[in-house]
Design goal:
The structure holds two protein chains of two kinds.
Chain A (H helix, E strand, L loop, with lengths): L1 E9 L5 E10 L4 E5 L6 H8 L7 E6 L2 E2 L5 H6 L1 E4 L11 H5 L1 H5 L4 H14 L4 H4 L9 H13 L5 E5 L7 H18 L2 E6 L2 H7 L2 E6 L2 E6 L1 H6 L4 H7 L1 H6 L5 H4 L2 H4 L6 E2 L5 H11 L3 E5 L5 E6 H6 L8 H4 L6 E2 L5 H10 L4 E5 L5 E6 H11 L4 H11 L1
Parallel strand pairs in A: 3-8, 3-9, 6-7, 7-8, 11-12, 14-15
Antiparallel strand pairs in A: 1-2, 1-4, 4-5, 9-10, 12-13, 15-16
Chain B lengths: L1 H45 L3 H16 L2 H12 L3 H26 L2 H10 L3 H31 L11 H11 L2 H33 L8
Helix pairs in contact in B: 1-4, 1-6, 1-7, 1-8, 2-4, 3-4, 4-6, 5-6, 6-8, 7-8
The chains are: A alpha/beta, B mainly alpha.
Chain lengths: 390, 219
């Protein structure tokens, strides 16, 4: 258990970064600190491994005041993951993972199996990756190593400072899932800092909402969504609403641009059919949009058509694609798009600009996700009407 | 041709001594320069008062601009003549490039690498020795390389204050009007500089491959 008691931080220039923070972080839980930038969430987290010292107040871990402990020793017993990963570029992957066990002077024959075990935990084959250098890995792989490096010496507490926010959306989602999966096995006390509410809701046991150096609300994701403590929290959990326009006109605000998936699975007309199947597998979709080099939308190809023609090896995607039936322009109000989809029984709808370029894709899933983000209170009413179509 | 053979037979011992002296002067100057400048560069990176850095770099730059002949002469009243003042003078020249490169190398290490090192429990010395130094080695090495090449060429002047070296051959050659001696001294210094450059360049590349796996390594 970690306790912060009356913690304040005032910088030399007089900036009052943290104001009387009182927090209890439960053992074995994943606690997310969230808030806009500059709210003090990272500062609060860094108090726990003494990277930042409080101006006043105490931080206790399991009842012991950490200001009386050796900071270097303390940090070796707390895992630490940062946004920019910070792998050591001159060390191999295996050596990077083994950093803390080395610092703690583990026996060599204990370190190696541990490193391999950890690498397998995040699906990176030790045989393949052990002797590579960080620069040879993708961003997502690097941060997987960042995460297992923090786990290496089996610390009870792990601090994660916006660990996934620099990753592309697909890797981010994968890593969030992997973290949840690991946490289910390991039950570490994890402090996770983010500014992304979706991420917080996805992984948190407890959310600590912060603003201007103060804790605004603490609770489970469910309770924060249901009972936001004030307008700030309401705004933060439904941030998109604020970005769009004046409140109170919810139907006017949403356009297809808010809802669309911006990275729909695409392919080029010159691609072979086996390649198309591979892309569909990778993206877990049943159809691909066919675009040219300038992202101009040419047509759509579904898995059924591809499989029908699959034996003809000379056929390309361009030969089997069908033209697009329905599309909308950016800026189209969401209700118009929804009506179009339901009238024509479409599972998805492409958003195409004036030059014919594919900007994004609206799916039933993306509509539900959007509603869930923006109108948590009216989702129930809407769910029934969508259900009739499905 | 016969002339040349007999010249080398006759003067072989002198040439060997001159070469040896030249190497000793260069090596001693670069070694002293590294011993001072590398730790000093590290200290400056960690120094919070940036005005001190400006002063140190100012003096290192001034030293660099004093003409080498003048510097050698200035030292005579303090250190007399011979190898000692020559080494000191050349050592003073080596400070700037090594200091500058060490400083830049350390300052170039990615701040996220340093943050994660600190957060995972590296002590200050461990961080310097195991993280920052290996990562800035390519920079430090290139500083040493530049310095060594310069110093080999400047060391030819050291003979004027009685330090010997390949410059000795040139000066004697001028005295007795013997072209072979002048050429041997000059060519020897050039070859030595090229050789040192190649050797240190190879070492630098080796270390870059080994340690410098950051995208930021250039220099």
């Amino acid at each position: 258990m970690i306790e912060l008691q009356q913690v304040n931080k005032v910088y030399d220039d007089g900036f009052h970064a943290l104001k009387d923070i009182n927090l209890t972080i439960k053992k074995g839980e994943l606690t997310v600190f969230i808030g806009p930038s500059g709210c003090g969430k990272s500062t609060t987290m860094k108090m726990i491994n003494r990277l930042i010292t409080p101006s006043s107040g105490k931080v206790l871990i399991n009842g012991k005041d950490i200001s009386e402990q050796n900071p270097v020793e303390l940090r070796r017993n707390i895992g630490y993951v940062i946004q920019n990963v910070g792998l050591f570029p001159h060390m191999t992957i295996a050596r990077n993972v083994a950093v803390v066990p080395h610092l703690k002077k583990w026996e060599q024959d204990r370190i190696q199996p541990r490193v391999e075990e950890l690498m397998r935990m995040v699906n990176l084959d030790p045989e393949v990756y052990r002797d590579r250098y960080p620069s040879e890995l993708s961003g997502g792989q690097q941060q997987r190593i960042g995460v297992i490096r923090a786990l290496a010496a089996d610390p009870d507490i792990i601090l994660m400072d916006e660990p996934f926010s620099a990753l592309d959306p697909i890797s981010r989602e994968q890593l969030q899932e992997e973290l949840s999966r690991l946490q289910e096995e390991l039950h570490k006390t994890i402090i996770f800092v983010t500014h992304d509410m979706d991420e917080a809701i996805k992984i948190a046991d407890t959310i600590v909402m912060m603003k201007d150096g103060e804790v605004v609300q603490t609770g489970s994701p469910e309770s924060i969504l249901r009972y936001p403590a004030n307008d700030f929290v309401r705004t933060f959990i439904g941030q998109k609403r604020m970005e769009e326009g004046p409140q109170g006109e919810p139907l006017r605000l949403s356009t297809v641009d808010d809802v669309m998936v911006t990275q729909p699975a695409t392919t080029y007309p010159s691609r072979g059919l086996a390649e198309a199947v591979k892309i569909m597998e990778g993206r877990r979709v049943d159809s691909l949009f066919v675009v040219d080099r300038f992202r101009k939308l040419l047509g759509i190809v579904s898995i059924y058509r591809v499989l029908n023609m699959f034996n003809e090896e000379n056929k390309t995607v361009g030969d089997v694609m069908r033209p697009i039936g329905y599309q909308v322009a950016p800026g189209t109000p969401l209700p118009v798009a929804i009506e179009m989809m339901s009238n024509h029984r479409l599972t998805n709808l492409a958003v195409v600009d004036d030059d014919g370029r594919l900007l994004g894709l609206i799916t039933r899933g993306s509509i539900v996700k959007h509603l869930n983000e923006v109108y948590p209170t009216i989702v129930e009413q809407f769910a029934s009407s969508l259900g009739e179509e499905a | 041709m016969n002339n040349l053979v007999s010249f080398f037979q006759e003067r072989g011992a002198d040439i060997a001594i001159a070469l040896q002296e030249h190497l000793v002067i260069t090596f001693a100057a670069v070694l002293l320069g590294s011993l001072l400048s590398i730790p000093l560069g590290i200290l400056l990176v960690y120094n919070r008062f940036k005005w001190i850095n400006s002063i140190v770099f100012f003096f290192a730059n001034i030293l660099q601009t004093v003409p080498s002949l003048a510097l050698l002469a200035i030292l005579i009243p303090f250190l007399g003549i011979g190898m000692k003042p020559a080494i000191v003078a050349l050592f003073l020249y080596s400070i700037m490039p090594i200091l500058r490169n060490t400083y830049d190398g350390f300052a170039s290490v990615d701040s996220s690498v340093l943050e994660s090192a600190r957060g995972m429990g590296y002590g200050t010395m461990q961080r310097i020795l195991r993280i920052q130094f290996p990562l800035s080695l390519p920079y430090v090495m290139s500083g040493i390389r530049i310095t060594t090449v310069y110093i080999i060429s400047w060391a030819t002047l050291a003979t004027l204050i009685g330090a010997g070296g390949l410059g000795q051959l040139i000066v004697s050659g001028l005295g007795v009007n013997k072209l072979e001696l002048i050429v041997t001294g000059a060519a020897g210094a050039i070859l030595l500089a090229l050789l040192a450059d190649a050797l240190l360049g190879w070492l630098e590349r080796l270390l870059t491959r080994r340690f410098g796996r950051t995208s930021s390594i250039a220099a």
